[in-house]
Design brief:
alpha/beta; Rossmann fold; four-stranded parallel sheet; GMP Synthetase, Chain A, domain 3; globular
Length: about 525
């Protein structure tokens, strides 16, 4: 089975079931499958062949999903990228993967730098953009809907096997340069089947999707629900969280997924606690460690739905471990155990499997694991080896085989003779009642070499006293782990997918230098 067979099979089983729901439109499985076939034929007419890369930088919705599955039906490799102007990641990714074609939104096409890159491709099409959106500057590319209207609706006949690439998902490494994780049909299908199994998904499920499809977590929501014939509610208005919460109730969402900042926003800047969601069955969290304090707060104030903590990576097609809701309280802080058909090991500095409780790097094997990075043999060799994919995350396993993260390898702070994980400090600071979000990074220190610096965002309704915060840290952390400085920000900088942007924070910290010690 290939990834687009998820759509084809669901359309054959339940053609009239609702596949996608936008704020002002819906598409059944039959309609979506036909639109995907039309998209495939339009790409083929433009010269796209098996194995070609097709860049997709489109606003999430019915059109973007049809283009994604259409690229796969054409035998191409989908390359979803963030749409919009002034996006240096877009240009670097396009230059890296050398696509044959692209389908982009008007704002992307109107940017002069982006347009110059797109003009070099065999074919570039522009969508009409979301209804009611202001028209951007003019561009020189043909309109996608015109190509669709001229395309056939029959299923294209393209030979492919599950070892063929389905997608290249670009993710930023520790340097910030984009690198393309190559995901085959087998990778995505295997991971999808595992997630469907442990979340117990069926055709009755409707997930509220506020995560973009160019992000592997958001894309996995699409794969899993299309695979079972469920519905995906696409809503990009999360800047107005109450609008999304109302849509969840009105659309009778059974599932919700978010990264840690998603839950922080819902708990501290929405009407979540005064609302009820009678149809909500499950909630999933991934995209970075959610502090135990925030999980407890969600369980206390959030909807009474099963809460799954999950851990993964783009290179794993999304998921590596999960924590069952039944284990949440007794294993708070854990990322759970390996998902079905995946093996996760903790490997120490000597390259051996670590003992119980011993900290090492998490390494994973499974049919969901990428074959490496596009156009980057050196980094592929560094991250993918005989034991599997080296995640770059440090952690340990307890006596029951549950994994716990300590931090990222590049997120360790060398304080004198000590190596300190930023996550440990962040988890403690998140316990403080005045803090909404926190991020700890190293700052140069004249005596210690490096020291922890904490960027903090306070809750709107609580005052924050730095002297009190310092005393709080000293009561819970050894002296060398207490931040030497606290920098208060209105909000912690985030990437386009809602993850804390530590690269930006490290740059901000590099402009500071302290010789003081708490």
């Amino acid at each position: 089975m290939l990834v687009h067979d998820f759509l084809r099979s669901s359309a054959a089983r339940t053609p009239d079931a609702v596949a996608l729901i936008e704020p002002s439109a819906t598409a059944t499985y039959k309609e979506l499958d036909q639109l995907a076939s039309r998209s495939a034929n339009a790409l083929a007419a433009a010269g796209v062949k098996r194995g070609d890369r097709v860049v997709l930088a489109i606003d999430d919705g019915i059109e973007s999903v049809a283009c994604y599955f259409g690229a796969l039906k054409a035998g191409a490799v989908a390359v979803p990228l963030p749409p919009g102007p002034h996006n240096d990641r877009f240009v670097r990714a396009v230059e890296d993967c050398s696509p044959a074609a692209a389908v982009v939104n008007p704002a992307t096409a109107a940017d002069p730098v982006t347009a110059a890159t797109l003009a070099k491709l065999r074919a570039t099409f522009v969508t009409r953009g979301p209804a009611g959106a202001a028209s951007p500057a003019r561009h020189q590319f043909p309109i996608w809907v015109t190509a669709l209207e001229a395309a056939r609706e029959d299923e294209p006949e393209v030979s492919a096997i599950d070892l063929d690439l389905a997608a290249i998902i670009y993710t930023s490494g520790s340097t910030g340069a984009p690198r393309g994780a190559m995901l085959s049909h087998l990778n995505i299908r295997s991971n999808t089947e595992s997630i469907v199994e442990y979340l117990h998904l069926t055709g009755a499920d409707r997930v509220m999707c506020v995560l973009p499809f160019y992000y592997v977590y958001g894309l996995s929501l699409l794969h899993t629900h299309v695979a079972v014939g469920g519905s995906v509610i696409v809503d990009t208005r999360f800047a107005f969280p109450n609008v999304v919460l109302n849509a969840m109730r009105e659309r009778q969402a059974t599932g919700f997924a978010g990264v840690p900042s998603t839950f922080a926003l819902l708990m501290h800047r929405s009407n979540l606690t005064s609302m009820e969601f009678p149809h909500l069955r499950y909630v999933t969290q991934a995209g970075g460690g959610m502090p135990p304090a925030r999980i407890r707060e969600w369980l206390e104030k959030g909807p009474k739905a099963a809460f799954y903590v999950m851990y993964g990576a783009t290179e794993a097609s999304a998921r590596l471990t999960y924590l069952e809701p039944a284990d949440l309280e007794r294993k708070l802080g854990s990322i759970g155990r390996a998902i079905p058909n995946v093996e996760v090991l903790v490997v120490n500095d000597e390259g051996r499997v670590a003992a119980t409780g011993e900290v090492g790097e998490l390494v994973a094997r499974g049919s969901n694991i990428s074959r490496g990075y596009w156009n980057s043999e050196e980094e592929t060799a560094e991250r993918f080896g005989p034991l599997g994919y080296r995640t770059g995350d440090l952690g340990y396993a307890d006596d029951d085989g549950f994994f716990y993260l300590v931090g990222r390898k590049h997120d360790m702070i060398k304080v004198g003779a000590h190596r300190v994980g930023a996550k440990e400090i962040e988890d403690v600071l998140n316990e403080h009642p005045a803090i909404s979000e926190v991020a700890v990074v190293p700052v140069q220190h004249e005596i210690l070499g490096e020291a922890p610096l904490a960027f903090i965002a306070r809750r709107q309704d609580v005052s924050l006293d730095i002297a009190d915060l310092l005393a709080f840290c000293h009561s819970r952390l050894p002296g060398h782990k207490v931040p030497v400085e606290f920098v208060t920000l209105p909000s912690i900088p985030k990437s386009s997918i809602g993850k804390i942007d530590k690269l930006t924070l490290r740059r901000m910290a590099s402009e500071r230098r302290t010789g003081c010690s708490n």
